[in-house]
């Protein structure tokens, strides 16, 4: 596993020997053809989801659970989402890739994962007849610290692959502690209350919108955003994520 401190090694070796895997640094000779920045072995592990999932919140469900209806995880919640598409659960190599994306040198990897998400889930997303793609915004100070917003890079590349306009309609208007450090599910929901707003002039009446993020845990962030978009007239709000915790 190549952790953030080894990214400099990746960029140096990429200059000498192009087409190396972003994750394990294997070249085509060792890992096979490079696809969306990943060798065949890493691509297969990241892109394969062996589990059944809830169509509404993307949580892993049992084989005999009805996936088109609210599952036990989201049945008692008003997520304001029509559906959620995921690559897989937040574990294993997919989790490692997402953690790498969150580092200052992870912007290029996030772009590759956006194209991979489009390849694997593009057909499912096209059936929703979407009008535009947007993303979960990051507060300006945190973006300055990291150097990029991985959700923004995912959404831009996903929109290109789907031939849909990317419109960053949303703003995060206050700084809050990161969702992953919240002590409980209720704290996560409280942390994002009234955290988002729309940019001036946004007209979403009758629009079917895809919101992109890297990880969904309790659904609090995406629910808050979906509610904001619906108040502005959005007809449907769908989500695309890399992983569901």
From TrEMBL:
Transmembrane segments: none annotated. SUPFAM superfamilies: PRTase-like. Residues 154-244 form the Phosphoribosyltransferase domain. InterPro entries: ComF/GntX_DNA_util-trans (IPR051910), DZR_2 (IPR044005), PRTase-like (IPR029057), PRTase_dom (IPR000836). It comes from the Bacteria. CDD domains: PRTases_typeI. Residues 13-75 form the Double zinc ribbon domain. PANTHER family: DNA UTILIZATION PROTEIN YHGH. Belongs to the ComF/GntX family. This is ComF family protein. It comes from Thermogemmata fonticola. The lineage of its organism: Bacteria, Pseudomonadati, Planctomycetota, Planctomycetia, Gemmatales.
């Amino acid at each position: 596993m190549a952790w953030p401190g080894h990214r400099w090694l990746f960029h140096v070796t990429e200059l000498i020997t192009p087409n190396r895997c972003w994750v394990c640094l294997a070249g085509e000779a060792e890992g096979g053809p490079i696809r969306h920045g990943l060798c065949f072995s890493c691509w297969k592990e990241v892109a394969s989801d062996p589990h059944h999932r809830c169509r509404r919140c993307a949580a892993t469900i049992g084989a005999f659970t009805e996936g088109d209806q609210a599952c036990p995880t989201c049945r008692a919640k008003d997520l304001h989402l029509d559906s959620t598409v995921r690559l897989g659960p937040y574990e294993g190599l997919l989790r490692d890739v997402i953690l790498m994306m969150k580092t200052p040198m992870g912007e290029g990897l996030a772009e590759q994962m956006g194209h991979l998400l489009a390849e694997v889930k593009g057909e499912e997303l096209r059936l929703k007849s979407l009008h535009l793609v947007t993303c979960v915004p990051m507060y300006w100070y945190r973006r300055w610290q990291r150097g990029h917003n991985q959700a923004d890079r995912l959404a831009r590349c996903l929109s290109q692959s789907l031939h849909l306009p990317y419109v960053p309609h949303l703003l995060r208007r206050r700084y809050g502690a990161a969702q992953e450090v919240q002590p409980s599910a209720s704290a996560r929901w409280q942390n994002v209350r009234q955290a988002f707003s729309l940019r001036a002039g946004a007209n979403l009446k009758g629009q079917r919108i895809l919101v992109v993020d890297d990880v969904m845990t309790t659904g609090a962030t995406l629910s808050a955003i979906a509610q904001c978009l619906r108040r502005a007239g959005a007809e449907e709000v769908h989500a695309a994520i890399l992983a569901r915790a």
